[in-house]
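Holo model, MTE. Inputs:
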Amino acid sequence: MFIKRKKGWELPDSAATPEAAYKRHSRRRLLATGAAGVVAIGAGAALWMSRRGGSVPQGTASTTAAADAQTAEAADPSTSLYPAMRNMRYRLDREITDEKVSTTYNNFYEFGSSKNIWQAAQRLPIRPWEIRIDGKVEKERTVGIDDLLKAVSLEERVYRHRCVEAWAMAVPWTGFPMKDLVAFAKPLSAAKFVRMETFNNPDVAPGLKASWYPWPYIEGLTIEEATNELAFLATGIYGKPVVKQMGAPLRLVTPWKYGFKSIKSIVRFTFTEERPKSFWEVIQGSEYGFWANVNPKVPHPRWSQATEELIGTNGTRVPTQLFNGYGDFVAQLYADKQSERLWT
Ligand code: MTE
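Output:
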């Protein structure tokens, strides 16, 4: 049951039902919703593609997915880092979403435009995984994910996660504050934005063969956003390394923004003077802007944002909150930007 709260994160976690108690929630209901009730974010892309002539490839389950996953898991040297201690500063007003639900209902267009890409995503090799840090930094460098993990300290945070398609979940991420990555990168004072880029290997991700999309997936934040305490780089989920379909081995989490900002499987951080143009912004800038902060009063052309469906709960809808309930952390970032299109 959805619990009323005073402010987004004020309820103690004890008020949220533990995962075991809500395992009964039916995945079937979720899949039915996915099929019938929710129009994919890619409908914006469909408009764009209809101008260019093309169709979106669907997720293709690899027959070797299970074997690939096992091999990759065995080879993941970070497994012993999990679970990490939960940071109790970040509280939920709702139940944590059942792991089986959140990890089988995903947007990851590199693997197809359906929500059912989790098996296809198992083909992504996540070791070795190198991350390029370049642009306006003291020294450009490339760092392996396991060396990066040695340079930071991991913690768990429970955050709400809100897609522009008007569904929501609550997820226990493990990772580190993005401000630690920024400190690691040592940006020059000229750097005003961080541009992030996803891997781009069509041999493992069939969606990348869809040449009408502006691959690779790109996202961006201002330096102030990237160093806000909420901005988080996830390397784990549910007390384990993050699953491939949710962005292994390194994924952005910005809970006050719509989910499309949360770029998955990052291979590059570029510090820039110019505001980067993100993937969805290139496709349909009138629908998916740079700022993309959650606001119940500003509808997307195809989705009212007034309420959101909590996935895995038999269709429970709850009111959407300004900045997804995180306004006390982030509203000040936008105080001098009121003339900009801050929402969607
Ligand atoms: N990152 C990449 N590289 N490719 C994608 O297609 N989809 C985005 C975002 N990050 C996407 C991505 C969208 S639209 C959403 S809503 C979230 O991932 C979904 O995250 P989840 O599947 O972990 O819930």
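The first helix runs from residue 19 to 22. Residues 41, 106-110, 161, 163, 198, 217, 246, 259-260, 262-265 surround MTE (CB under 6 Å).
Archived with the compound record.
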